[in-house]
Design brief:
single chain; alpha/beta; Aspartate Aminotransferase, domain 2; four-stranded mixed sheet; 15 helices; binds pyridoxal-5'-phosphate
């Protein structure tokens, strides 16, 4: 008899769970908006994941900077199960203690201000855009300047804000009021400001376009410019934030030796904040905290007790286990090794950039080994690394990113390094 239970059992049968059948189901039923790698992942533990054929991979991709404590962390499981027995969701029509506590923790880590909770990075940026629009509304200012090669999410405003043609193509007309100038070019930013400008938005470390780091001078210069022209300085820390660089937010690492009082006016967060449970947030400086008054902005799922319980637990574990220091120590030493590798194989590996556990490896795109393939050099390297048992993330055309869990161990970093060395030697021919 074909009962509900039998149908379920048969789809769980090993013979029905081969890679091909999973792919076939995706081919029929899932919107094909992603170029997926040929891996079906089934379970994880710490910095390892297993595919459905039992193959094990060292995860240096971290779900693209999301799995801050790795996979199946027992304290995340505990927070999820215990909180789900109490209260998963209440509307923002009411107070819930955990949302207030998480907001306070974030404020304590940045500076006096307020926090709004949402569910993703794109939404966090969207909130900052609305904040900026509100700020400029009465004097007719609305324009936000961002940088070329930036990435700010896939909503309509997100793709308008993103400084890459490929995300906009086919979705015109774009949301008005965004323009882009070269990154790390203060003069270009100054020249782009008009009477309509209300804010500047940058990623202090550009992630999607290949780990490009803002200089300290650039950040300080932008702050000065925004003060002079009464503009909001907004940072998208969705990828580089949450202790990945060794500091809570990446601008704090970039400026750590400057000993200056520096603050942006708004900061977007998501990815590592929830360790895989969806949560986004933006912090806004106290001075501007009341711009979004009752009724002006909302999110049904924003800051549920469940999401906040997980995010609070992650902050507890990061603090207790000193994972900011771990990210800095393991990441910086891994980067030094990778830079040495680039020195030994300059024709293959052109540069290695990053801070802590956000690292970009820039490959030579014209390598003979990459020729004759449709896929980008970055994708080809990521595929080769899969064969060597390591997950990484492509960025732009020829950069490969490492965005592992903050609790990556020295031994795991060395394992990853060996796989990368193997692939670099192979590419050297
Ligand atoms: C991932 C990312 C986003 C978008 O986040 P989603 O959660 O996918 O909406 C925005 N900005 C940056 C810098 C990102 O890396």
């Amino acid at each position: 008899m074909k009962t509900e239970e039998n149908v379920q059992r048969s789809t769980l049968d090993p013979q029905h769970r081969t890679r091909n059948s999973v792919r076939e189901t995706f081919g029929k039923f899932v919107v094909p908006s992603y170029a997926r790698f040929d891996l079906v992942l089934e379970r994880g533990e710490g910095s390892y994941v297993w595919d459905i054929d039992g193959g094990r991979y060292l995860d240096l991709a971290g779900g693209i900077a999301v799995c801050s404590l790795g996979h199946a962390h027992p304290e995340i499981t505990k927070a999820l199960t215990e909180q789900s027995r109490k209260l998963i969701h209440v509307s923002n029509l009411y107070y819930n203690e955990l949302q207030g506590r998480l907001a306070k923790r974030i404020v304590d880590l940045i500076a006096p201000g307020r926090v709004f909770f949402c569910n993703s990075g794109a939404e966090a940026n969207e909130g900052l855009f609305k904040l900026a629009r509100k700020f400029g509304h009465d004097d007719g200012r609305f324009e936000i300047i961002t940088t070329l090669d930036s990435f700010h999410g896939r909503t309509l405003a997100g793709i308008a804000a993103t400084g890459q043609e490929k995300v906009k193509k086919g979705f015109e007309p774009l949301v008005a009021g965004f323009k882009h100038v070269r990154f790390n070019d203060l003069a270009a930013m100054r020249a782009a400001i008009t009477r309509s400008t209300i804010a500047i938005l940058i990623e202090p470390i550009q992630g999607e376009s290949g780990i490009t780091i803002a200089t300290a001078e650039y950040l300080l210069g932008l702050r000065k410019l925004c003060d002079e022209r009464n503009l909001l300085l907004l940072f998208d820390e969705v990828q580089a934030g949450h202790f990945r660089t060794g500091k809570f937010q990446s601008w704090q690492r970039i400026l750590e030796n400057r000993h200056v009082d520096f603050l942006p006016d708004g900061v977007a967060m998501a990815k590592s904040l929830g360790g895989g449970f969806p949560i986004g947030a933006f912090w806004v400086r106290e001075k501007y905290a009341k711009l979004l008054s009752p009724g002006t902005h909302a999110s049904t799922f924003g800051g549920t007790p469940l999401a906040c319980a997980v995010a609070l637990t992650i902050l507890d574990v990061i603090e207790r286990e000193n994972l900011a220091e771990n990210a800095r120590r393991i990441g910086d030493s891994l980067m030094a090794e990778l830079q040495a590798l680039a020195k030994n194989y300059p024709k293959v590996l052109r540069a290695v950039r990053g801070f802590g556990l956000i690292i970009g490896l820039e490959f030579e795109p014209k390598l003979l080994a990459f020729a004759g393939e449709e896929r980008s050099p970055a994708t080809q390297v990521v595929n080769r690394l899969h064969k060597a048992g390591v997950l990484t993330v492509p960025a732009a055309n020829s950069v490969v990113r490492l965005l592992p869990a903050l609790n990556l161990s020295q031994r795991q970093a060395e394992e990853g390094l060996r796989a990368i060395e193997e692939v670099v030697e192979e590419l050297n021919g």
